[in-house]
Amino acid sequence: MTRHIHTDPSAWEVLDTIYLHRRPWLTMRQDRVLLSSGQIIEDYYVQEYPPWVNVLAITEDRRAVLIRQYRHGIGKVYYELPAGVHDKPEESVLEAAKRELLEETGYSGGDWKLWMELSANPSLQNNITYTFLAEGVVPSGEQQLDDTEEITIHTVPLDELRNIALENGMIQALHVAPVLKYLMQFPVG
Amino acid sequence: MTRHIHTDPSAWEVLDTIYLHRRPWLTMRQDRVLLSSGQIIEDYYVQEYPPWVNVLAITEDRRAVLIRQYRHGIGKVYYELPAGVHDKPEESVLEAAKRELLEETGYSGGDWKLWMELSANPSLQNNITYTFLAEGVVPSGEQQLDDTEEITIHTVPLDELRNIALENGMIQALHVAPVLKYLMQFPVG
Protein backbone atom coordinates (compact mmCIF):
# COMPACT_ATOMS: atom_id res chain seq x y z
CA MET A 1 0.00 0.00 0.00
CA THR A 2 1.14 3.53 -0.62
CA ARG A 3 2.16 5.30 2.56
CA HIS A 4 0.68 8.80 2.78
CA ILE A 5 3.06 11.20 4.55
CA HIS A 6 1.41 14.05 6.40
CA THR A 7 4.28 16.48 7.04
CA ASP A 8 4.46 19.18 4.38
CA PRO A 9 7.60 19.26 2.23
CA SER A 10 10.28 21.64 3.51
CA ALA A 11 11.66 24.73 1.81
CA TRP A 12 15.21 24.58 0.49
CA GLU A 13 17.97 26.65 2.11
CA VAL A 14 19.99 28.88 -0.22
CA LEU A 15 23.68 28.46 0.56
CA ASP A 16 25.00 30.67 -2.22
CA THR A 17 23.60 32.62 -5.14
CA ILE A 18 24.96 34.30 -8.25
CA TYR A 19 23.40 35.98 -11.25
CA LEU A 20 24.28 34.49 -14.61
CA HIS A 21 22.45 37.26 -16.46
CA ARG A 22 20.98 40.60 -15.54
CA ARG A 23 19.78 41.89 -18.90
CA PRO A 24 16.48 43.72 -19.43
CA TRP A 25 14.60 40.63 -20.58
CA LEU A 26 16.69 37.93 -18.91
CA THR A 27 17.46 37.84 -15.20
CA MET A 28 18.80 34.39 -14.41
CA ARG A 29 19.85 33.43 -10.92
CA GLN A 30 21.86 30.34 -9.99
CA ASP A 31 21.39 29.06 -6.43
CA ARG A 32 23.35 26.49 -4.47
CA VAL A 33 20.68 24.91 -2.28
CA LEU A 34 20.45 22.54 0.68
CA LEU A 35 17.49 20.16 0.85
CA SER A 36 16.04 18.84 4.09
CA SER A 37 17.45 15.42 3.18
CA GLY A 38 20.95 16.90 3.44
CA GLN A 39 21.42 16.76 -0.32
CA ILE A 40 22.92 19.77 -2.06
CA ILE A 41 22.01 20.92 -5.57
CA GLU A 42 24.98 22.92 -6.87
CA ASP A 43 23.23 24.78 -9.71
CA TYR A 44 19.52 25.47 -9.46
CA TYR A 45 18.40 28.05 -12.03
CA VAL A 46 15.64 30.56 -11.31
CA GLN A 47 14.40 33.14 -13.80
CA GLU A 48 13.34 36.36 -12.12
CA TYR A 49 10.49 38.33 -13.68
CA PRO A 50 8.17 41.13 -12.54
CA PRO A 51 4.48 40.22 -12.13
CA TRP A 52 2.67 39.41 -15.37
CA VAL A 53 -0.94 40.42 -16.09
CA ASN A 54 -3.61 39.34 -18.54
CA VAL A 55 -7.26 40.21 -19.08
CA LEU A 56 -10.38 38.20 -19.83
CA ALA A 57 -12.45 41.02 -21.30
CA ILE A 58 -16.12 40.44 -22.07
CA THR A 59 -18.07 42.96 -24.15
CA GLU A 60 -21.55 44.19 -23.34
CA ASP A 61 -22.97 41.69 -25.85
CA ARG A 62 -21.16 38.77 -24.18
CA ARG A 63 -18.23 38.31 -26.54
CA ALA A 64 -14.65 37.71 -25.37
CA VAL A 65 -11.96 40.07 -26.67
CA LEU A 66 -9.12 37.84 -27.85
CA ILE A 67 -5.94 38.55 -29.76
CA ARG A 68 -3.69 36.53 -32.05
CA GLN A 69 0.07 36.97 -32.23
CA TYR A 70 3.16 35.02 -33.25
CA ARG A 71 5.11 33.54 -30.35
CA HIS A 72 8.72 32.76 -31.17
CA GLY A 73 9.39 30.20 -28.43
CA ILE A 74 6.78 27.83 -29.83
CA GLY A 75 7.09 29.23 -33.36
CA LYS A 76 3.34 29.54 -34.06
CA VAL A 77 0.31 31.84 -33.86
CA TYR A 78 -2.53 31.11 -31.39
CA TYR A 79 -5.46 32.92 -29.78
CA GLU A 80 -4.49 34.66 -26.54
CA LEU A 81 -5.76 37.00 -23.83
CA PRO A 82 -4.37 40.53 -23.95
CA ALA A 83 -1.41 40.47 -21.61
CA GLY A 84 1.68 42.26 -20.42
CA VAL A 85 4.15 42.90 -17.66
CA HIS A 86 3.79 44.95 -14.49
CA ASP A 87 7.10 46.78 -14.57
CA LYS A 88 6.15 50.39 -13.84
CA PRO A 89 6.38 51.04 -10.09
CA GLU A 90 3.91 53.93 -10.32
CA GLU A 91 1.20 51.59 -11.66
CA SER A 92 -0.79 48.96 -9.78
CA VAL A 93 -1.21 45.52 -11.40
CA LEU A 94 -4.84 46.47 -12.14
CA GLU A 95 -3.72 49.65 -13.91
CA ALA A 96 -1.13 47.66 -15.87
CA ALA A 97 -3.87 45.25 -16.97
CA LYS A 98 -6.20 48.08 -18.02
CA ARG A 99 -3.38 49.71 -19.96
CA GLU A 100 -2.49 46.47 -21.77
CA LEU A 101 -6.11 45.85 -22.79
CA LEU A 102 -6.42 49.38 -24.16
CA GLU A 103 -3.07 49.36 -25.95
CA GLU A 104 -3.43 45.89 -27.47
CA THR A 105 -7.11 45.98 -28.41
CA GLY A 106 -8.51 49.51 -28.02
CA TYR A 107 -11.13 48.23 -25.51
CA SER A 108 -11.70 49.73 -22.05
CA GLY A 109 -14.33 50.39 -19.39
CA GLY A 110 -16.60 47.81 -17.76
CA ASP A 111 -16.37 46.30 -14.27
CA TRP A 112 -13.02 44.89 -13.27
CA LYS A 113 -12.04 42.34 -10.64
CA LEU A 114 -9.05 40.14 -9.86
CA TRP A 115 -10.01 36.78 -11.31
CA MET A 116 -7.07 34.40 -10.83
CA GLU A 117 -3.45 34.17 -9.68
CA LEU A 118 -1.26 31.58 -11.36
CA SER A 119 2.33 30.66 -12.05
CA ALA A 120 3.67 29.73 -15.49
CA ASN A 121 6.28 27.54 -13.82
CA PRO A 122 6.77 27.67 -10.05
CA SER A 123 9.94 25.58 -10.11
CA LEU A 124 11.79 27.84 -12.56
CA GLN A 125 10.23 31.30 -12.22
CA ASN A 126 9.70 33.61 -9.25
CA ASN A 127 6.71 35.62 -10.49
CA ILE A 128 2.91 35.42 -10.33
CA THR A 129 0.56 36.13 -13.23
CA TYR A 130 -2.60 38.08 -12.32
CA THR A 131 -5.70 37.59 -14.48
CA PHE A 132 -8.37 40.29 -14.33
CA LEU A 133 -11.95 39.77 -15.48
CA ALA A 134 -13.42 42.86 -17.15
CA GLU A 135 -17.15 42.65 -17.92
CA GLY A 136 -18.88 45.15 -20.14
CA VAL A 137 -15.84 46.52 -21.99
CA VAL A 138 -16.42 48.79 -24.97
CA PRO A 139 -14.29 49.81 -27.95
CA SER A 140 -12.65 53.12 -27.01
CA GLY A 141 -9.87 53.73 -29.51
CA GLU A 142 -7.24 52.32 -31.79
CA GLN A 143 -4.56 49.83 -30.76
CA GLN A 144 -1.32 51.42 -29.55
CA LEU A 145 1.21 48.69 -30.08
CA ASP A 146 4.89 48.53 -29.18
CA ASP A 147 7.03 48.52 -32.31
CA THR A 148 7.66 44.78 -32.08
CA GLU A 149 4.00 43.86 -31.54
CA GLU A 150 1.88 42.52 -34.41
CA ILE A 151 -1.52 41.71 -32.89
CA THR A 152 -4.90 41.01 -34.48
CA ILE A 153 -8.14 41.46 -32.49
CA HIS A 154 -11.04 38.99 -32.42
CA THR A 155 -14.29 39.25 -30.47
CA VAL A 156 -15.83 35.79 -30.10
CA PRO A 157 -19.11 34.52 -28.61
CA LEU A 158 -18.80 32.26 -25.58
CA ASP A 159 -19.44 28.99 -27.40
CA GLU A 160 -16.58 29.80 -29.78
CA LEU A 161 -14.43 30.75 -26.76
CA ARG A 162 -15.13 27.29 -25.34
CA ASN A 163 -14.07 25.60 -28.59
CA ILE A 164 -10.93 27.72 -28.80
CA ALA A 165 -9.92 26.87 -25.22
CA LEU A 166 -10.72 23.15 -25.45
CA GLU A 167 -9.59 22.39 -29.03
CA ASN A 168 -6.03 23.79 -28.97
CA GLY A 169 -6.94 27.19 -30.39
CA MET A 170 -5.31 28.71 -27.30
CA ILE A 171 -2.10 27.08 -26.03
CA GLN A 172 -0.90 29.20 -23.12
CA ALA A 173 -1.94 27.60 -19.83
CA LEU A 174 -1.98 31.04 -18.11
CA HIS A 175 -4.77 32.03 -20.50
CA VAL A 176 -6.68 28.75 -20.81
CA ALA A 177 -7.12 28.32 -17.03
CA PRO A 178 -8.93 31.65 -16.40
CA VAL A 179 -11.05 31.13 -19.53
CA LEU A 180 -12.15 27.70 -18.28
CA LYS A 181 -12.85 29.13 -14.82
CA TYR A 182 -15.14 31.68 -16.48
CA LEU A 183 -16.89 29.13 -18.70
CA MET A 184 -17.57 26.83 -15.71
CA GLN A 185 -20.36 29.25 -14.83
CA PHE A 186 -22.16 28.39 -18.08
CA PRO A 187 -22.61 24.63 -18.40
CA VAL A 188 -23.13 23.42 -21.97
CA GLY A 189 -26.81 22.65 -22.26
CA MET B 1 -13.58 52.54 -33.67
CA THR B 2 -11.13 49.69 -33.36
CA ARG B 3 -10.02 48.33 -36.70
CA HIS B 4 -10.06 44.53 -36.81
CA ILE B 5 -7.27 43.21 -39.01
CA HIS B 6 -7.95 39.86 -40.65
CA THR B 7 -4.50 38.75 -41.83
CA ASP B 8 -2.84 36.43 -39.32
CA PRO B 9 0.39 37.68 -37.73
CA SER B 10 3.53 36.51 -39.50
CA ALA B 11 6.28 34.28 -38.15
CA TRP B 12 9.63 35.86 -37.43
CA GLU B 13 12.67 35.00 -39.53
CA VAL B 14 15.75 33.83 -37.65
CA LEU B 15 18.81 35.66 -38.99
CA ASP B 16 21.32 34.26 -36.52
CA THR B 17 21.31 32.00 -33.49
CA ILE B 18 23.71 31.09 -30.70
CA TYR B 19 23.44 29.01 -27.54
CA LEU B 20 24.20 30.85 -24.33
CA HIS B 21 23.96 27.66 -22.30
CA ARG B 22 23.76 23.97 -23.09
CA ARG B 23 23.74 22.43 -19.64
CA PRO B 24 21.57 19.47 -18.63
CA TRP B 25 18.83 21.59 -17.08
CA LEU B 26 19.39 24.83 -18.98
CA THR B 27 19.44 25.10 -22.75
CA MET B 28 19.18 28.78 -23.64
CA ARG B 29 19.17 29.96 -27.22
CA GLN B 30 19.60 33.57 -28.35
CA ASP B 31 18.11 34.42 -31.74
CA ARG B 32 18.54 37.50 -33.90
CA VAL B 33 15.16 37.82 -35.59
CA LEU B 34 13.55 39.81 -38.40
CA LEU B 35 9.89 40.82 -38.00
CA SER B 36 7.53 41.33 -40.92
CA SER B 37 7.60 45.08 -40.15
CA GLY B 38 11.32 45.08 -41.00
CA GLN B 39 12.30 45.55 -37.36
CA ILE B 40 15.11 43.43 -35.99
CA ILE B 41 15.32 42.11 -32.42
CA GLU B 42 19.00 41.48 -31.68
CA ASP B 43 18.61 39.19 -28.68
CA TYR B 44 15.50 37.09 -28.35
CA TYR B 45 15.93 34.37 -25.72
CA VAL B 46 14.30 30.94 -26.05
CA GLN B 47 14.60 28.16 -23.49
CA GLU B 48 14.63 24.74 -25.07
CA TYR B 49 13.10 21.85 -23.16
CA PRO B 50 11.91 18.34 -23.98
CA PRO B 51 8.15 17.71 -23.74
CA TRP B 52 6.72 17.83 -20.24
CA VAL B 53 3.99 15.50 -18.98
CA ASN B 54 1.54 15.53 -16.10
CA VAL B 55 -1.33 13.29 -15.00
CA LEU B 56 -4.83 13.95 -13.69
CA ALA B 57 -5.34 10.58 -12.00
CA ILE B 58 -8.78 9.69 -10.62
CA THR B 59 -9.21 6.68 -8.34
CA GLU B 60 -11.99 4.15 -8.63
CA ASP B 61 -13.85 5.96 -5.83
CA ARG B 62 -13.64 9.30 -7.66
CA ARG B 63 -10.78 10.96 -5.81
CA ALA B 64 -7.98 12.89 -7.52
CA VAL B 65 -4.40 11.83 -6.75
CA LEU B 66 -2.52 15.06 -5.97
CA ILE B 67 0.94 15.70 -4.63
CA ARG B 68 2.55 18.51 -2.66
CA GLN B 69 6.14 19.62 -3.11
CA TYR B 70 8.33 22.67 -2.53
CA ARG B 71 9.04 24.69 -5.65
CA HIS B 72 12.14 26.86 -5.42
CA GLY B 73 11.30 29.37 -8.14
CA ILE B 74 8.23 30.57 -6.27
CA GLY B 75 9.63 29.53 -2.86
CA LYS B 76 6.47 27.79 -1.59
CA VAL B 77 4.60 24.48 -1.37
CA TYR B 78 1.37 23.94 -3.32
CA TYR B 79 -0.84 21.06 -4.50
CA GLU B 80 0.18 19.75 -7.92
CA LEU B 81 -0.48 17.01 -10.45
CA PRO B 82 2.20 14.31 -10.67
CA ALA B 83 4.48 15.46 -13.46
CA GLY B 84 7.77 15.01 -15.21
CA VAL B 85 9.81 15.30 -18.34
CA HIS B 86 9.79 13.16 -21.49
CA ASP B 87 13.53 12.80 -21.99
CA LYS B 88 13.98 9.08 -22.68
CA PRO B 89 13.84 8.44 -26.45
CA GLU B 90 12.79 4.82 -25.91
CA GLU B 91 9.62 5.94 -24.06
CA SER B 92 6.48 7.50 -25.50
CA VAL B 93 5.00 10.54 -23.73
CA LEU B 94 2.21 8.27 -22.44
CA GLU B 95 4.77 5.86 -20.99
CA ALA B 96 6.64 8.77 -19.40
CA ALA B 97 3.39 9.95 -17.79
CA LYS B 98 2.56 6.46 -16.48
CA ARG B 99 6.07 6.15 -15.06
CA GLU B 100 5.89 9.54 -13.33
CA LEU B 101 2.54 8.70 -11.72
CA LEU B 102 3.88 5.38 -10.43
CA GLU B 103 7.20 6.79 -9.21
CA GLU B 104 5.74 9.90 -7.55
CA THR B 105 2.59 8.38 -6.02
CA GLY B 106 2.65 4.58 -6.30
CA TYR B 107 -0.61 4.63 -8.31
CA SER B 108 -1.10 2.92 -11.68
CA GLY B 109 -3.65 1.19 -13.89
CA GLY B 110 -6.98 2.58 -15.05
CA ASP B 111 -7.95 3.95 -18.48
CA TRP B 112 -5.63 6.54 -19.95
CA LYS B 113 -6.18 9.17 -22.63
CA LEU B 114 -4.48 12.35 -23.80
CA TRP B 115 -6.45 15.11 -22.10
CA MET B 116 -4.79 18.42 -22.99
CA GLU B 117 -1.80 20.04 -24.69
CA LEU B 118 -0.57 23.34 -23.29
CA SER B 119 2.43 25.62 -23.16
CA ALA B 120 3.84 27.13 -19.97
CA ASN B 121 5.05 30.11 -21.97
CA PRO B 122 4.93 30.06 -25.77
CA SER B 123 6.98 33.23 -26.15
CA LEU B 124 9.95 31.98 -24.11
CA GLN B 125 9.86 28.16 -24.31
CA ASN B 126 9.80 25.74 -27.23
CA ASN B 127 8.10 22.75 -25.57
CA ILE B 128 4.55 21.42 -25.12
CA THR B 129 3.17 19.94 -21.90
CA TYR B 130 0.94 16.87 -22.36
CA THR B 131 -1.70 16.17 -19.70
CA PHE B 132 -3.07 12.64 -19.51
CA LEU B 133 -6.34 11.73 -17.78
CA ALA B 134 -6.18 8.37 -16.00
CA GLU B 135 -9.51 7.13 -14.64
CA GLY B 136 -9.71 4.22 -12.24
CA VAL B 137 -6.12 4.23 -10.95
CA VAL B 138 -5.24 2.00 -8.00
CA PRO B 139 -2.44 2.01 -5.44
CA SER B 140 0.20 -0.41 -6.75
CA GLY B 141 3.36 0.22 -4.79
CA GLU B 142 5.55 2.62 -2.90
CA GLN B 143 6.82 5.94 -4.25
CA GLN B 144 10.18 5.71 -6.02
CA LEU B 145 11.49 9.24 -5.79
CA ASP B 146 14.58 10.82 -7.28
CA ASP B 147 17.03 11.78 -4.56
CA THR B 148 16.07 15.44 -4.75
CA GLU B 149 12.31 14.82 -4.66
CA GLU B 150 10.33 15.31 -1.45
CA ILE B 151 6.70 14.65 -2.36
CA THR B 152 3.61 14.01 -0.23
CA ILE B 153 0.54 12.27 -1.69
CA HIS B 154 -3.07 13.39 -1.19
CA THR B 155 -6.22 11.78 -2.60
CA VAL B 156 -9.03 14.35 -2.59
CA PRO B 157 -12.74 14.15 -3.49
CA LEU B 158 -13.83 16.25 -6.46
CA ASP B 159 -15.42 19.07 -4.44
CA GLU B 160 -12.14 19.52 -2.60
CA LEU B 161 -10.31 19.41 -5.95
CA ARG B 162 -12.54 22.26 -7.12
CA ASN B 163 -11.72 24.34 -4.03
CA ILE B 164 -8.01 23.64 -4.41
CA ALA B 165 -8.02 24.70 -8.07
CA LEU B 166 -10.17 27.81 -7.58
CA GLU B 167 -8.87 29.08 -4.23
CA ASN B 168 -5.10 29.20 -4.90
CA GLY B 169 -4.35 25.77 -3.47
CA MET B 170 -2.79 24.90 -6.83
CA ILE B 171 -0.72 27.61 -8.54
CA GLN B 172 0.73 26.07 -11.68
CA ALA B 173 -1.38 27.01 -14.70
CA LEU B 174 -0.33 23.78 -16.51
CA HIS B 175 -2.10 21.84 -13.74
CA VAL B 176 -5.06 24.11 -13.02
CA ALA B 177 -6.22 24.20 -16.66
CA PRO B 178 -6.65 20.42 -17.09
CA VAL B 179 -8.27 20.15 -13.64
CA LEU B 180 -10.82 22.82 -14.58
CA LYS B 181 -11.45 21.12 -17.93
CA TYR B 182 -12.24 17.94 -16.00
CA LEU B 183 -14.47 19.67 -13.45
CA MET B 184 -16.47 21.41 -16.19
CA GLN B 185 -18.20 18.06 -16.71
CA PHE B 186 -19.64 18.24 -13.18
CA PRO B 187 -21.50 21.54 -12.66
CA VAL B 188 -21.85 22.56 -9.02
CA GLY B 189 -25.44 21.82 -8.10
Note down, in words, how this protein is organized.
- The structure is a homodimer of 189-residue chains.
- Chain A is of the alpha+beta class and 189 residues long.
- Chain A has three helices and eleven strands.
- Chain A folds into two domains: 13-48; 52-185, Nucleoside Triphosphate Pyrophosphohydrolase.
- Chain A has helices spanning 93-105, 158-166, 173-183, and strands spanning 13-23, 26-34, 40-47, 52-59, 63-71, 76-80, 83-85, 107-108, 111-118, 129-139, 152-157.
- In chain A, strands 4, 7, 8, 9 and 10 form a five-stranded mixed sheet that branches.
- In chain A, strand 1 and strand 2 (26-34) form a beta hairpin.
- In chain A, helix 2 (158-166) crosses helix 3.
Sum up the structure in keywords.
2 domains, 189 residues, 5-stranded mixed sheet, homodimer, alpha+beta, 42% strand, Nucleoside Triphosphate Pyrophosphohydrolase, 3 helices, globular
Main beta sheet strand tally, sense and closure of chain A: 5 strands, mixed
What would the principal axes of the Cα set say about the shape of chain A? globular
Tell me which CATH architecture of the largest domain in chain A applies here. Answer: Alpha-Beta Complex
Considering residues with a beta carbon less than 8 A from a beta carbon on another chain, report the largest interface and each chain's count: A-B, 81 and 81 residues
The count of strands of chain A amounts to 11
What oligomeric arrangement do these chains adopt?
homodimer
The class by helix and strand makeup of chain A works out as alpha+beta
Overall mean confidence score, pLDDT of chain A: 93
- What is the beta-strand fraction of chain A? 35-45%
The helicity of chain A comes to: 10-25%
Put simply, the count of helices of chain A is 3
- Under CATH at level 1, the class of the largest domain in chain A stands as Alpha Beta
The first-to-last residue Cα distance of chain A is: 42 Å
Count of discrete structural domains of chain A: 2
